[in-house]
Amino acid sequence: MTSEISKYIVAHRQALNHVSDVLVSRSSSSPKCQINTFHPSVGNGYSDLYDFGRICLGRGQFCLKKPKQISAETTVYCFGLTIFLSGTFQIKNNNLNQLLICKSPTIVLRKGCLGFQSINLPQNQQMSLISIDFDQNLLHDFIQSKHLNNIVRFFLDQNAPCLQQIDSPNSRIIYQSQYILNSPSTQNEIELLHLEGAALELLGLLLQENNNIYNEPHLVSIEKTISIMDKEFDQKITIPQLAKRVGLNECDLKRCFKQYTNKTIGNYLLTLRMQHAMFLLKNGSTIQEVAYKTGYNNVH
User: Fold this and answer.
1) Do the record's keywords include Transcription (predicted)?
2) pLDDT of amino acid 132
């Protein structure tokens, strides 16, 4: 691990001091890892950070009991991006007087010393994201041509804003991001190398020449499908109903959903319901109440 990238772990740990009522740091046997869980009084989920030397990877999946604003100051000069995969995030940067409303899926590019920022998170909404920070030298390593895409131009342009939002990443970026998000937390050196490789591949997709990062036609329907399930998981949901509501035939819906999320519709819906069930049980609901509120007619 090089000294340059370790600044991100240090900055992350400093930021945790400002959100100790939200995130609880878990012990780690590796200095390359920072693993946190959400305080039970706030919600359930996790946030972790992996320092690989060349890049720093962050991941988060969570659901909050009530709306929450998380504020912290970024004191390091960074090149980075965040891919919001599910949920709605509101980011405010006081230094730049910038406000971004991030409705997933979307990408936020960032560069420079961003100073004090706050992020507003809604309640009872499944949220997930991937972040990558990297050294400027790595950026130049990726540049092999004068024909640069918009993301590379953003990082190279001294006059570009320090935060910029790009909507609707394509299916390859969504797929790779979901793959990283769904990989288990690890501190094993071999598994860390595998996770680093996946993160570098994602960064390569974003920075490569002539990369079209924008939306493909079916992605709008898939995002509508995800939104329906996120909001209506407590009701009976069938694939024929979903297909009719989002304007796809059943075969295309199932195929594209698996391609974009790396999960089947059934697995995605089951995960939503189980996460909400855990949330309800931790807060004193009976099994009968949990079954009713997660879309099951009975407890059997």
Assistant:
1) yes
2) 93
- Asked if residue 254 and residue 114 are part of one domain, the reply reads no
pTM (global) more than 0.85: no
> 66 and 28 in one domain?
yes
3-class DSSP state for residue 129? Answer: strand
Structural domain of 250: 217-293
Q: Give CA–CA dist 133/54, Å, rounded.
A: 9
C-alpha separations of 176 from 206, 261, 263, 285 in Å? 11, 9, 12, 37
Q: Cα dist. 205→146, 150, 171, 285 in Å?
A: 17, 13, 11, 44
Instruction: Assess whether 250 and 131 both reside in one domain.
Output: no
- As given in the structure block, the two tokens for residue 211 are 């990369």
- Same domain for 50 and 179, yes or no, is yes
pLDDT tens digit sequence for 259-289: 767 678 998 888 888 878 887 777 777 877 7
Q: What amino acid is encoded at 50 in this protein?
A: Y
Per the CB < 8 A criterion, the answer to whether 63 and 275 are in contact is: yes
Q: Which of 177, 207, 237 is the last residue of a domain?
A: 207
Task: Mark which of 207, 225, 259 sits at the end of a domain.
Answer: 207
- CB 122 within 8 Å of CB 67: yes
* Cβ-Cβ contacts under 8 Å for 140 (sequence gap 6 or more): none
Are the C-beta atoms of 159 and 150 separated by less than 8 Å? Answer: no
- Check if the beta carbon of residue 97 is closer than 8 Å to that of residue 137: no
